[in-house]
Design brief:
single chain; 276 residues; Rossmann fold; two-stranded antiparallel sheet; 12 helices; globular
Length: 276
């Protein structure tokens, strides 16, 4: 079977599983061919479909996230190694980098802190955006930190990125120009898609009965970790803007929100309020 026919067939098979069934099929085919998706679409459509494609397609049909199958995910301007045990980066999270870019412009921050860095997603995106910046990524997962270190090395950012095992901001005495954080914010028992619920690490998703457990711990730490003129960009879930803003404002922070491409309040930008 030709690649183009195999892709059409695969997209039909995945249609009930994924809202991006054709894209999923193309990424899996590129993996099977050992090439990039762009090259696949431009010059490999009339090749014979490789036998390896079938096994990859079966994994996706069983619910495994595409990022885990192909071992990578694009985010902002970088490609990240991704695998089981880390949260798959979402385009919605790019809203945090957009908010930081709006604040700092091309000059950028000098020191960046990424709390809950996972595979280095936000920290490495920020360092790639601003060549003069350096930063620290903190996570509770040693496996995630090892992956973050490999990502930093592959992207040529290892000299500017440090990764440390830790529990949010505990034990960090330094202050930063930019704090980035995508904490767990899903309420326990929430109805999630199978490829999220069955595959991604629950400790990176769930945050107590109301989804606010980690924000309650983070809010008191933000002011002491911020340098004058700095900002914290924190991701929130749909419908959490008011509740999380109140937690941050109670700590003396002025809060504004940024919306993602779907129009959902996705990022809270926090700065020290006047008089604090």
């Amino acid at each position: 079977m030709k690649v183009r026919d195999a892709l059409a067939q695969a997209a039909r098979r995945l249609a009930e599983r994924s809202e991006t069934s054709r894209l999923d099929a193309e990424l899996l085919m590129a993996k099977a061919l050992g090439t990039e998706r762009e090259n696949l679409l431009l010059s490999r459509m009339d090749n014979e479909a490789p036998a390896a494609f079938v096994a990859l397609l079966d994994r996706r049909a069983a619910g495994e996230p595409v990022a885990y199958i192909v071992g990578r995910r694009s985010f902002w301007t970088i490609d990240l190694e991704i695998g089981p045990g880390v949260l798959v980066p979402r385009p919605d999270t790019e809203t945090l980098i957009e908010a930081a870019l709006e604040h700092f412009g091309a000059g950028g921050p000098k020191r960046v802190l990424d709390l809950g860095t996972g595979p280095g997603t936000l920290l490495l995106a920020a360092l790639d955006q601003w060549p003069g910046a350096s930063g620290l990524g903190v996570d509770r997962s040693q496996a995630a930190l090892l992956m973050a270190g490999r990502n930093a090395a592959r992207l040529g950012l290892a000299r500017r990125a440090e990764f440390r095992l830790g529990d949010w901001g505990q034990g960090i005495a330094e202050r930063f120009h930019l704090i980035l954080c995508n904490p767990p914010y899903v309420e326990e028992g929430a109805d999630l898609a199978r490829d999220v619920k069955d595959w991604e690490p629950p400790e990176a998703l769930f945050a107590g009965p109301d989804g606010l457990q980690d924000y309650r711990r983070l809010a008191p730490e933000i002011p002491r970790l911020l340098l004058p003129g700095g900002i914290a960009c924190i991701e929130i879930g749909a419908g959490q803007e008011r509740a999380v803003s109140a937690l941050l404002e109670a700590e003396g922070l002025a809060v504004s929100s940024r919306r993602d491409l779907a129009g959902i309040a996705r990022c809270l930008v926090s700065i020290p309020a006047l008089g604090h």
